[in-house]
Amino acid sequence: MSETIDHKVSVSPVLPGVSVSLNAQPYGGFQIVVFSPAANEPSELYSGLRAVGFSARATAAQSTATVRQSFGRDGSGLLGGWTGPERERFLGEARRTLRRFGFAFVPEVPHVQRA
Q1: For 58-71, what is each residue's pLDDT tens digit?
Q2: Do residues 24 and 110 make contact, with C-beta atoms less than 8 angstroms apart?
Q3: Strand 19-24 vs strand 108-109: parallel, antiparallel, or unpaired?
Q4: Long-range CB pairs of 46-53, under 8 A, 24+ apart, other chains included
Q5: pTM of the shown model
Q6: Residue 59: how many CB atoms within 10 A of its CB?
Q7: Are 54 and 72 in contact (CB under 8 A)?
Q8: How far apart are the first and last CA of the chain?
């Protein structure tokens, strides 16, 4: 599965075949990006993320066997970005939720400006 993902991700022994990253957004927030087998999406993980305020955003098929599901959360900053205290709180809630599913460390992927 890692052959289809072009950045660092965290894997979980609890959810085989599922990987996660935190992708920075240009306006100060993050999206949680979940890569999973198309035939075995982690619905309990999705429910856990929704329970702490993250909502499903874009879903894309990476390949015929892999799904990329993004979750985001709007803050009170400009364009829905996160303020400093929101960043601390929202990332803490996200990381605690991800740890419950076996993701011990989730890398933060910086935003890259594309020309």
Answers
A1: 777 667 788 999 99
A2: yes
A3: parallel
A4: 46/71, 48/97, 48/100, 48/101, 49/94, 49/97, 51/97, 52/93, 52/94, 52/96, 52/97, 53/90, 53/93
A5: 0.84
A6: 11
A7: yes
A8: 28
